[in-house]
Amino acid sequence: MTLPNLITLGRLLLVPVVIAMIGQGAWGLAFAGFALAGLSDALDGFLARRLGAQSEIGAILDPLADKALLVSVLVMLAAEGAVPAWLAVVVVARDLVMVGAILAMRLLGRRVAIRPLLIGKLNTAAQIAFAGGVLGLRALGLAPQPAEGWAAVAVAVLAVSSAAAYGVHGLRGTRDEDPG
User: Fold this and answer.
1) Which of 31, 99, 146, 147 has its CA 20 to 30 A from that of 130?
2) Do residues 114 and 123 make contact, with C-beta atoms less than 8 angstroms apart?
3) pTM flag (> 0.70)
């Protein structure tokens, strides 16, 4: 197990802590845990490249940890009424549709090359900024801002757009698997 992979596992372990802090209304601790998770994401990526410690397990764990944190935080924020429930539904549905599409393609004997697209990166960045902003405002004891509604719409539009882009990209980039 490489150091970057251990850091990623630590980020995964932070997910239930951050969720519990949101549930308890401990916004400062939730924000701190979310920020720590973000820093650990940057650190594990830097170390993996710097130390030449990239691994197959890391390539799976890192995006899994990111998704686990983002989806869990957005769902919990929705459950607490801090963000619109429809936003959590859009984000979760996007991820479920994408995973389902990949599984379906695999079952049909198609190999799907999964490469990050710019819109996917923008989608992730928007979700991180939005969730971090919501947590940060509450940690500071500030009331929800009018811009949060527009930001939620922007996050939803990016989620849907990125799902569509990956769908088009996936359909173009599939090929029959070599059975032998």
Assistant:
1) 99
2) no
3) yes
Cβ distance 131 to 34 under 8 Å? yes
What percent of the chain shows pLDDT beyond 70? 93
Per-residue pLDDT of 2-30, as tens digits, reads: 898 999 999 999 999 999 999 999 999 99
Note down the domain range covering 36: 3-176
As a whole number, mean pLDDT of residues 114-119 equals: 83
Distance CA 138, CA 161 (A): 29
